[in-house]
Amino acid sequence: MHPITAYGAFERQEVTSTVMSRGEGVFVEDRDGRKKLDAFAGLYCVNVGYGRTEIADAIAEQARKLAYFHAYGGHGTEASITLAKMILDRAPKHMSKVYFGLSGSDANETNIKLVWYYNEVKGRPEKKKIISRWRAYHGSGLISGSLTGLPLFHKQFGLPLEYVKHTEAPYGLRRPDPEMSDEAFVDYLAQRLEELIAKEGADTIAAFIGEPVLGTGGIVPPPAGYWDRIQPILKKYDILLIADEVVTGFGRLGSMFGSEHYNIRPDIITIAKGLTSAYAPLSGSIVSEDVWSVIRDGTNTHGPFGHGWTYSAHPLCAAAGVANLKLIDEMGLVANAREVGGYLKAELTSALVNHPAVVEVRGEGLMCAVELASLKDGKSAFNPSDTVVPRIVAEIGRKGVIARPMPQADVIGYAPPLCLTKSEADIIVGATRDAIEEFSFPA
Ligand code: PLP
Q: If I label 378, which of 29, 73, 223, 263 is the partner at 20 to 30 A Cα–Cα?
């Protein structure tokens, strides 16, 4: 059973599926020898590109030396110690410790338990609710899926759980009044957040979680000033800030972290994908010195932090992480993401700006999106049964480029490996332009 798949349609062979067999740089090849430029880096995770033997060798060497030892009760391996140090060298200076997991979803589960434990220690067990945003993506577990703000992950599951409340997304294109300036829109978002806090009661709210740039919800950079405006509100009500950097961590925005990019001072940072470039599954919760010291001291009176996975800090994954972070530095990928990301956005914009169905080309670093809208009025969504964006993306695929139809909007998403060159960016732009120009849009 595949994740996020319509099983009936799959068994009737109505969905296009591929069996991939190899990859190199930004290209992947299926078992029939068809080669494509992967403009979404798998699921925005293969950041250093495919086929990096340095990482494969590091995993093999670790497997030969010590395939596994657990991390419970203070144990560890050299690989995980080295990696934690490398992460903290790159993270904002006030961050202090790393708790390793395996996926972005489980790291967000960990974060919520860290926050709850923290508030228990502080003697305020009623401060447990988490504010997230509509259109957010934080995973698909029970709490992480509740934090996610997309109906697909809630319907049929009785989610979100009662602890999770959602506020408005900083989705500029869909602001309530198109005449609103960025500043007025940010004021509006801040006001909606304050209203939610007042309604729920600040003493019941533990944390706010947000992706620096909304990812799965449509690849949406925030309006100017958003994070500057939100953070003082959280401070005022003693609400912790969790920056979910599963996508933005380790260079995707052209900065090492999205927190650095937008001047965010988080209490906890979620990391995954780019930590190992998906050569092995590994995630982490980076915890600030303030949160760490409360939890550490709390264990003296409240007992050990009752949370762990057998594979927390798995040495094979940690070895992959060490080799991956070295490669990101050696290949200059953070600067490349900034430069080639700027180029990709500019080229997509000039190729598509005059097409009547294109309402916005947006992005930050190597996260880009093209939003489309009905030709009727140039702004409303397409009828989902017309499957406009999935069909355009399939056509882009036939032209040799893998893009992603984002699940919650008429958006084509791009998040290629950070080693993308300008001439590879040209291939993405050409395939997109031709697919959109040749497409018969519904009247
Ligand atoms: N957080 C963000 C921002 C993500 O984009 C994702 C996955 O796309 C997750 C969390 C969940 O990560 P995983 O799929 O590894 O559980």
A: 223
